[in-house]
């Protein structure tokens, strides 16, 4: 019975196994990025960037249809362009980084929608916006796995400056010049993971598997390593349960995954061991010696 | 000043009295590309046809633009499919404030039912296509009585072509072994075609392209292909091709090329006209199912 509900879909159907492999790779790369986004108060930046990659993907799509590499490459270029332009404008003028990014991503999003609709088909736009985790072919899986591996390797290299910069940027500036390059590398990783996510979940939901697990993790751990572990685990769990949910109930797979993550998030907000609401209302007894 | 006024008046009078030798084409709007092709064939040079949903676009989920409202308000005749295909159209007609006569091309067709709704893809069978042509002919005659003879001649010439096409299709189907007359296609737009030819179409999605398939839908269709030993999987030009490739890879069924259902292709594509579309589809079907 439980086997039928939870395991059988994956033993029986290859597309479910592929979807699961894809979502696990996404979780491995995206969740740690999400934790850093949250610690740097950039969670909404992730969302903005997700919209910003649309025109690049759209141009790739316009030139060569639903071609994996063209769309990935285009998305990467658009994401980097918006990130860099927003950064330059914020540093060179009076405008703040958030306003600058908001302006650029909106321009980018509008351009993307315009470009896709120039092709004349609305249904294609839906594929770009919503992706399809059930249609993982070898190429897509390899690209997602490659990007996840790359993300973990680069994170390992820039881990130290990145963590210190989250906690005490001034201190980092006095002891090292690694802050700026680490930040840039991190932004690049954000874009890479968003592009990764949009094959499976689409540009609208790609950011969901990054931000929600990080939020969940925050309620269960104060330690950054612990947070990473919990974030990755909850992202994987959401992916798995989301696929099962989609298999058992006819909910489309992408939204199902994000909805499961959202459910876990609500549970964490209520019952989380670190600053969860219930925990705050009933704090338990103080430890006494 | 007064002289100029008289001159303008005289010219206007002259134009008004001019015999309709250089006739201005009747502006006709058709809701989507296949209807547009019918109108072009029946109307010939007497009509100027514009289509709202152009080639390669999905008429189910179309979003009208202000330019479409303008086309409708300028038109003398608006030809729609009906049977619920153009759900977005009634509001557009109202808001455009046009005075065009509306012709429903499916009038007189007994619709097949899909669930509780009528299946709008009636143009896929030869018998219905004849009714479409008849309705369009009558609508054009009502809107432009001066051209009645031309419309009748064009329509009967086109009907003869459709008859020949129908014989071609039936002959091709007869050559497919009976046990192999079943395919899977992304979109069950072929209900009328299936009823007319005896080829079973099994679709992984609902009647409309509006819903996104869930994991359960895909699993069901894979099980179905394996159980019924369906020999071929067909892509359509408007729904997710990646998903079809995945299903084909998982079941071992062959991918049978593209079938065109709701829209013609651009001029240089496989199916720029209705006749080309039917011919292309039957060729794709026979070559995938024959061996």
What does this structure look like?
The complex is a heterodimer of chains A (289) and B (291). Chain A has 289 residues and is an all-alpha fold. Chain A has helices spanning 2-6, 8-12, 14-39, 43-52, 54-64, 68-92, 97-118, 122-130, 138-167, 169-175, 179-200, 202-205, 208-218, 224-249, 253-271, 277-281. Helices cover 82% and strands 0% of the residues of chain A. In chain A, α5 runs antiparallel to α6 (68-92). The mean pLDDT of chain A is 85. Chain B has 291 residues and is an alpha/beta fold. Chain B folds into two domains: 26-168, 3-Layer(aba) Sandwich (Rossmann fold), CATH 3.40.50.1980; 175-289, Nitrogenase molybdenum iron protein domain (Rossmann fold). Chain B is 47% helix and 15% strand. In chain B, α3 packs across α4 and α6 (148-174) runs parallel beside α10. The longest helix of chain B is centred in the middle third of the chain and has 27 residues, at 148-174. Chain B is elongated. Chain B starts with a helix and ends with a helix. The A-B interface holds A 9, 12-16, 18-19, 66, 120-123, 126-127, 130, 132, 134-137, 243, 246-253, 256 and B 54-58, 61-63, 209, 212-219, 222, 238-243, 245-247, 249-250.
Topology:
The complex is a heterodimer of chains A (289) and B (291).
Chain A: H1 2-6, H2 8-12, H3 14-39, H4 43-52, H5 54-64, H6 68-92, H7 97-118, H8 122-130, H9 138-167, H10 169-175, H11 179-200, H12 202-205, H13 208-218, H14 224-249, H15 253-271, H16 277-281
Helix pairs in contact in A: 3-9, 3-11, 3-13, 3-14, 4-7, 5-6, 5-7, 6-7, 6-11, 9-10, 9-11, 13-14, 13-15, 14-15
Chain B: H1 2-17, E1 26-32, H2 33-43, E2 47-53, H3 66-74, E3 77-80, H4 89-96, E4 101-104, E5 113-114, E6 117-118, H5 126-143, H6 148-174, E7 182-185, H7 191-197, E8 200-202, H8 215-228, E9 232-236, H9 241-251, E10 254-259, H10 274-289
Parallel strand pairs in B: 1-2, 1-3, 3-4, 7-8, 7-9, 9-10
Antiparallel strand pairs in B: 5-6
């Amino acid at each position: 019975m439980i086997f039928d509900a939870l395991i059988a879909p994956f033993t029986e159907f290859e597309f479910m196994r592929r979807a699961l492999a894809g979502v696990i790779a996404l979780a491995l790369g995206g969740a740690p990025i999400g934790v850093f986004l949250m610690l740097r108060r950039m969670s909404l930046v992730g969302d903005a960037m997700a919209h910003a990659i649309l025109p690049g993907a759209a141009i790739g799509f316009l030139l060569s249809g639903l071609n994996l590499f063209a769309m990935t490459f285009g998305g990467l270029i658009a994401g980097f362009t918006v990130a860099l332009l927003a950064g330059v404008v914020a540093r060179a003028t009076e405008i703040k980084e958030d306003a600058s990014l908001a302006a650029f991503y909106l321009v980018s999003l509008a351009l993307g929608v315009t470009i896709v609709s120039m092709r004349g088909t609305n249904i294609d736009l839906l594929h770009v916006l919503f992706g399809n985790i059930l249609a993982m072919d070898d190429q897509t899986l390899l690209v997602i796995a490659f990007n996840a591996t790359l993300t973990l390797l680069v994170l390992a290299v820039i881990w130290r400056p990145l963590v210190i910069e989250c906690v005490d940027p001034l201190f980092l500036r006095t002891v090292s010049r690694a802050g700026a390059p680490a930040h840039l590398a991190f932004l690049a990783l954000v874009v890479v993971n968003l592009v990764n996510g949009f094959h499976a979940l689409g540009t609208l939901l790609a950011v969901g598997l990054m931000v929600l697990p990080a939020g969940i993790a925050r309620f269960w751990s104060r330690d950054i390593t612990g947070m990473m572990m919990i974030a990755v685990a909850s992202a994987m769990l959401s992916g798995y349960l989301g696929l099962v949910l989609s298999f058992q109930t006819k909910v489309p797979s992408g939204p199902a995954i994000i909805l499961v993550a959202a459910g876990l998030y609500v549970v964490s907000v209520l019952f989380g061991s670190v600053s969860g609401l219930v925990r705050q209302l009933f704090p338990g007894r103080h430890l006494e010696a | 000043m007064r002289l100029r006024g008289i001159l303008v008046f005289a010219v206007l009078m002259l134009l008004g009295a001019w015999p309709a030798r250089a006739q201005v084409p009747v502006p006709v709007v058709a809701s989507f590309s296949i209807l547009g092709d019918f109108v072009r064939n029946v109307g010939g040079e007497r009509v100027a046809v514009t289509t709202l949903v152009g080639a390669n676009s999905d008429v189910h989920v179309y979003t009208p633009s202000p330019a479409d409202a303008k086309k409708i308000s300028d038109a003398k005749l608006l030809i729609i499919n009906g049977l619920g295909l153009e759900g977005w159209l009634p509001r557009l007609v109202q808001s455009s404030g046009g005075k065009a006569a509306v012709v429903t091309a499916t009038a007189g067709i007994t619709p097949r039912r899909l669930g509780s709704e009528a299946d709008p893809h009636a143009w896929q069978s030869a018998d219905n296509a004849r009714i479409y042509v008849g309705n369009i002919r009558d609508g054009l005659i009502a809107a432009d009585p001066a051209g009645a003879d031309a419309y009748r001649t064009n329509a009967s010439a086109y009907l003869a072509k459709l008859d020949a096409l129908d014989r071609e299709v039936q002959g091709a189907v007869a050559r497919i072994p009976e046990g192999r007359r079943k395919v899977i296609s992304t979109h069950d737009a072929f209900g009328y075609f299936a009823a007319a030819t005896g080829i079973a179409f099994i679709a992984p999605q609902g009647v409309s392209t509006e819903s996104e398939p869930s994991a359960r839908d895909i699993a069901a269709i894979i099980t179905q292909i394996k159980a019924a030993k369906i020999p071929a999987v067909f892509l359509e030009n408007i729904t997710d091709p990646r998903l079809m490739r995945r299903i084909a890879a998982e079941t071992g069924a062959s991918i049978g090329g593209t079938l065109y259902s709701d829209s013609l292709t651009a001029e240089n594509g496989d199916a720029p006209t209705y006749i080309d579309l039917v011919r292309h589809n039957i060729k794709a079907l026979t070559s995938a199912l024959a061996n």
